[in-house]
């Protein structure tokens, strides 16, 4: 009887230790903002994007429409979440116009940010992170009550103001900064036609929110999202373009391929780096339709080396890059519901 009791105690302690270790592997993020964060459920996009990279994220969000940081500083649901003291990151997102209007920047945004940052730290949370938002599609003068911003000539002009406001407060508080708005600027520089705004020229489309999730992924994990399999329903081409825009903005080059899954056993490319041609080797567990596509670092589809039926077993697909220029490319295998993405380097 005594041995049985001791065994049960040991098992209980072991299960408890494993539960703690599992929790330690989970990144906990609290978002405080408004509809810019709530649109397209940005926290959920971050969770799913991170999961495709083999990382577990738990989020909570308090995002009433139109809220300022000043509102959050006295809003019970926000204060209750902060008081838990369990967050690795607490993300603060200001109302979209406030940072561009000097009166509100210095009399509302900054004092509220300082108050919330002090509260976040005193409650035992790890870090404050500022969510740099994006400018309006056509810029323009931003007015709230009796106070207004300068007349912004376009998005980029307004984004400069937002970037300055968020960078200043992040530096003053030694806080993290997630430069989502700057990533929008990068994406628009690469492709002026990319549709990041909803028809109101303010709130984000799914592409805009997905780009934001990619920036937060880099902020939290310090690794490039390029090649992650989760696309949130966007085309592979669009997702890769946005992943690359985020990586360029934050200057991250280190890359890890998406984890291999059962459908592609022992997937590898040899040689890699390569000159002119390489061979993609992989194993499929069943027969089915296989699709292989190659993209450049901007997420543009370059070619489709294979699209057709393959029996189960080991396969080799040759990729001829004779007409391509030197650089980094990504190939993506699609087999049924399974995907695999990896990087290849062409050197001529």
From TrEMBL:
UniProt entry keywords in alphabetical sequence: Signal
Annotated Secretion system C-terminal sorting domain residues: 270-344
This protein's record includes keyword Translocase: no
Gene3D superfamilies named among the record's database cross-references: SGNH hydrolase
Domain of life per record: Bacteria
GO MF: hydrolase activity, acting on ester bonds
Signal peptide: 1-22
Protein's name in the database: Secretion system C-terminal sorting domain-containing protein
Species of the source: candidate division LCP-89 bacterium B3_LCP
């Amino acid at each position: 009887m005594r041995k049985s009791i001791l065994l049960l105690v040991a098992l209980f302690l072991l299960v408890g230790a494993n539960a703690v270790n599992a929790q330690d592997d989970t990144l906990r993020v609290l978002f405080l903002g408004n509809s810019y964060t709530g649109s397209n459920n940005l926290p959920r996009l971050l969770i799913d994007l991170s999961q495709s990279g083999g990382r577990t994220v738990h989020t909570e969000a308090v995002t009433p429409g139109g809220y300022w940081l000043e509102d959050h500083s006295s809003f019970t649901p926000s204060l209750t979440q902060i008081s838990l003291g369990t967050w690795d990151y607490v993300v603060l997102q200001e109302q979209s116009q406030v940072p561009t209007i000097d009166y509100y920047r210095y009399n509302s945004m900054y004092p509220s940010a300082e108050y919330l940052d002090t509260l976040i730290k005193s409650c035992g949370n790890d870090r404050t992170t500022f969510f740099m938002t994006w400018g309006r599609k056509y810029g323009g003068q931003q007015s709230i009550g009796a106070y207004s911003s300068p007349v912004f000539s376009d998005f980029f002009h307004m984004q400069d103001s937002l970037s300055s406001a968020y960078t200043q407060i992040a530096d003053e508080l030694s806080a993290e900064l997630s430069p989502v708005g700057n990533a929008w600027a990068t994406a628009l520089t690469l492709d002026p036609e990319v549709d990041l705004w909803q028809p109101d020229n303010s709130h984000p489309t799914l592409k805009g929110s997905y780009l934001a999730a990619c920036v937060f992924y880099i902020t939290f994990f310090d690794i490039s999202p390029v090649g992650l399999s989760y696309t949130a329903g966007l085309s592979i081409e669009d997702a890769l373009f946005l992943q690359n825009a985020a990586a360029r903005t934050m200057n991250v080059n280190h890359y890890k391929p998406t984890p291999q899954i059962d459908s592609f056993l022992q997937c590898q490319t040899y040689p890699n780096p390569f000159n002119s041609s390489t061979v993609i080797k992989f194993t499929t567990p069943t027969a089915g339709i296989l699709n292989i596509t190659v993209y450049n670092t901007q997420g543009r589809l370059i070619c489709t080396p294979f699209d057709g039926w393959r029996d189960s077993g080991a396969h080799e697909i040759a990729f001829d890059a004779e007409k391509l220029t030197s650089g980094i490319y990504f190939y993506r295998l699609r087999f049924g519901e399974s995907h695999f993405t990896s990087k290849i380097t062409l050197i001529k």
